[in-house]
Structure prediction request, 1010 residues.
Amino acid sequence: MKKQQSISDRQDGSSYKMVGKPLPKVDVYATVTGRAVHADDILLPRMVYGRLLRSPHAHARILSIDTRPAMALPGVLAIITGEELPQTFGILPSSQDEHALAVDKVRYVGDPVAAVAALDPDILDEVLKHITVEYEVLPSLMSIDEALAHPEVKINDEARIGNIHKAVSLEFGDVGAGFAEAEYVREDWFSYEGNTHAPMEEHACVANWEPIPTDPVSGKLTLWSSTQTPHYVHREVSKVLGLPPSHVRVIAPHVGGGFGGKSDPFSHEICACVLARRIGRPVKITCTREEVFLIHRGRHPVKMWIKTGVKGDGTLTAMHFRSFLDGGAYGSYGIATTYYTGALQPVTYTLPCYKFEGMRLFTNKPPCGPKRGHGTTQPRYAVEVHLDKVAHDLGLDPVEFRRRNLIKPYSRTVNGLRVTSCALEACLDQVVQRSGWNEFHTRQGATPEDQQRSHASENDRHDGAQAGKDLPLKRGMGLAASAYLCGAGKPIYWNDMPHSAVQIRLDRGGGVTVYCGATEIGQGSTSVLSSIVAEELGVQPGHLHLETADTTLTPVDLGSYSSRVTFMAGNAAIAAARTLKARLLEVAAEQLHVPAERLGASDGLIYDERDPGVVLPFVQAVQLAEARYGALVASGSYAPPEGLQGDYKGAGVGPSPAYSYSACVAQVNVDVEAGEVVVEKLWLAHDVGQSINPLLVLGQVEGGGYMGYGEAVMEQQVFRKGRHKMPSLLDYKLPTTLDTPDIEAILVGTPDPEGPFGGKEAGQGPLNPVIPAIANAVFDAVGVRIDETPITADKVLQALRAQGGKTRTPPRALLGPSEVPSPWPTRLIAWQPEESREQAGEHPMKGRS
Amino acid sequence: MRDLISLEVNGQRYELAVLPHHTLLEVLREEMRLTGTKHGCELGECGACTVLVDGLPVLSCLTLPLEVQACDITTIEGLEHNGQLHPLQETFAALGAAQCGYCTPGILLSAVALLREHPHPSREQTKEALAGNLCRCTGYTKIYEAVEAAAERIVRTGGPL
Prediction:
C-alpha cells in the first residue's frame, strides 16, 4: 500500500481554495468516456489518407526515384518526393539539417523518401511498393566508436569535423587546483543505453487546405497534430511550405502521451500539409508503431567518463566530466542535449570547480532527441553511481556524503546558474526515513548472529532465508539524488518575447474562458491553468472553459518541453487573472462601499475581508465591470528574469527560473544464480515547491518512477545490420503491471518565491534519481557494479562471475570509446563566477585553445 | 467486395457492409465512428483497443467482425448509461488513474471484466487482469487504487457491472 503525504511548511497555503487541492483533471471525463478526440479520430469530409515511404538502408545515396507506376494505380491522388521540398528545417535554428523527404541521401533505416496520398488507406502499402527507388548503398556507422573511427564516411554535413556534430569544452574555476587539493581521486566510465518514449498514441495528423483564390498565397492551412509543441510546428511548417505564418494554424487535439517524443516538427506533418495543398482535400497520416520507433528522437546513448576529487571527510573539491552522445542521423535537439549532459552537475552538489567536455556524434540510426529528463538522465546515473563508489572507497555513509555536498538554496553554481528554493535535503530525509534505510543498513553491517536474530524482519537481506545458509536471493537498498529545470531559461530561438502568454475573457453570464498555447499531453497543464485561474478569480473551476494549444486562437506558449508549463504558463495566467480581478474589485468596491484593498474573491463571491457578510456575487461584478470597461479581456505573459546564467558561450543551456529536486531509495532483490534483478519498491521524494494539484503531481512522480524503472532494467535499443531490431511493443520491453515496482511518492518543499503560488515542475525531475538508485541497490545487494544500463540479468551474472577475491568492481569491457579524441576538438572556454573573479582580480573570460 | 454483417454493439444491433479482412477495431472506429476505442500497435501488443466480447476482454485489432456476429460487444461508449458513468469511470477520474487517457478505455474494459469475475480483487488479481494493457503515464498505482475504489463502491451500492 502506498502512503502519500504532502510535507510543506508553507505559511499561507492553507488559505487557498483551489491551489493544493487534489482535483480531477479537467479533461478526464472526456478520456474515461471515450469522448476525447485524438488526431487519428478526426474525420473530415473528403478526407484522404497518406503514408511515407521510408528508407530500407542505413546510409545510401538516392540515384533515382520513379513514382510513375505507383501514380498509375487506381485511387492514388498524389506522390511527392524530396526535390519538391528543398527547404531544410529542424527544431533548433542551429541544426537546420532535415528535409521533409530525403534529398540525395538517406541516413537511417526509416528516413522518409516519398509521400503518397490515396483515397483508401488499405492501398497505401501497395502504392509504396510501386515506388521504385534506386540506391547506392554507402558504409553505415552504427556506434560512437565507428563514428569516431571513420571521419571519411560523412553522415551529415552539419558535422564540422568528421562525424562530430557538436563538441563542447567548458572549465569553471581552476580544476587543476581543485584536484591538487583532493585527498582522493577516482575515475570511472559509464555507458547509458538509448531508449524511446513509446507514448501509447502513435503520432498522427490531419492537414486541411482551404483555397482562397483572391489571397496572395491562395489559401490557408490547418494542421491537427499529436504534438507537444504546436508553436514550433507552426514555425517549421510555414517555413517549409513557404507560407506566411498568418496562413497556417496548428492545433494539438487530445495528445496520447509524449514524454519528449512529440516535440520535434516531423516529416509526416509537413508531408500531410503539402499533400493537402496539392490535392485540395484533407489528408490524414497516422504512423504505425514501427514508424514511431523509427521517428524516435529518444534518449541518446551516452558514454561518460567522470573524475572526481574529494577530501578525506567527503567534501568535493573538483569534477571533470566527459560525455559522448550517439546522436543518430540528424540534429534534432542534440546540441541542447549535449550541453545538458554537463550543465546540471553543479546544481545538485556544490562543486568548487568543474570541467565539462561533451561531444555528439552523427550515426546512421534514428535521430535522438529529448526524452523526459532531456540529457540530464544519463549523467545523473553516472554521477550518482560514481559518487556511491567514492563513498564506498572512503568508507563514508552514502547519505551523509551526499548531505555534506548538497547545493545550498539561494546560491549560484560554479557554472553561473542561479539556484533559488531547494528542498533536496528534505527529499533525502524523507526517502531515508520512509524506506527504513538506516535500519536496513544497520542489519547489513551487523554480525551474522545479529542477522540471524533479525531474520524475521521484512527488510532482511536474504529473502525467505534460513539463517546461515547461502541463498540465491539477496536484498539491497540504493540511493540517489537529482535536480531538474522548471523550464528552459532561454527559448529555442533566441528572442525577447514572452515564453508563455494567457488571455482570459469574462462572460457576462459568469463564464471564464482561458486561452493559452500550453499543450496538454496528459501531464495536466490545462488543469494547472484551471486551478490557478479559479484560485485567482475566486470562482469554481466548473465556470471555466479552457482553449489551449491552437496557434490561431491562443497566445503563444512555447510548448510542453523542459518542464516549463506550470511555471511559465502558470505565472502568465496569474498575471492575466489579476488584471481582470482588479477591474472587478474596483466596481465591487464602489457597489459595496468597501475599499478595493479590503476585498477578497472566493467561491463565486467578492467579499469584505473584515466583514465576510458583505458580498457581491462574481457574476454581478462582471456585469458592472463590463458596463464600465466594455468586453472584459486581459492577457498576461511570462518570460524568465535576466541574470539566471553566466556570460559564456553555451551558458544558455541549463539556466531556469527554478530547479526541482528529487531523491530516491530503491530496494532490489537480486537472484545471484540467475542474475535477475527484481525492483521491489521505490521511495521517491520530490521537491515541487507548492503543489498546484497534488493528485496530478503525485501522478507525475509515480509515472517518472515507473519510466525510470523501465530504463534501468528493461529497455534496450539494439540495431542489427543497420536496422532497429525490435521496433514493436512486444519485442521492446516496457514495464507492465506485473513488472512495475511499488512506488511511494512523497511531495516535499516550500513555495518557490517566483513559481506560480510557489509551484515548481514535476513532469521530468522525478525520473532522474531512479536509475542510479536501482544501480546502487544492486551493488548493495550483491557487491557488483553494473556501469552500463539497462541492468539486465546477463550483465549481473557476468559481473558476479568475474567477481573474485576482494575486487568489488570486476573488470568489464571498455565502456568508453576505444579512442578518446585528443586534443578535444574544440576550443576550451574557461569561466569564473563573479565572486571568484573579484577575489582573483581576473578577467572573466580567459580563452585557451 | 464487402460482406453484409450484423453486430450487436453496446446493446444495439447494426447492419454493416464491411471488408472481410477489416478488423473489429477498424470497423468500430472507421465504419461506426466509435473512436473511443483507441489503437497503439494494431498487432495485439498494447491493449489500447480492448473491448468486451460477451463480457470478456478481447483485442479488437486481432478480432474479425465476422467472428463475433453472434456476440455482445461492449466498447467504452457502452459503459455509461443515459449519461450516467460507470463507477470505474468515476473513480478513474477522481483518483488520477487517467493521465493522457489513451490507454484508459482499454484498461476500463479490462477492469469491468475483472470486477465481474472478482468483485473484491486482490492487488495481484488486478495486476494479472491488467497485464495486457500498457500505460506509459501512471506507473499503474493510481489505476489499482481506482479499480479497488470502484469495486468497493459497486459492492456497497449494488451498482452496475
The longest strand of chain B covers residues 3-9.
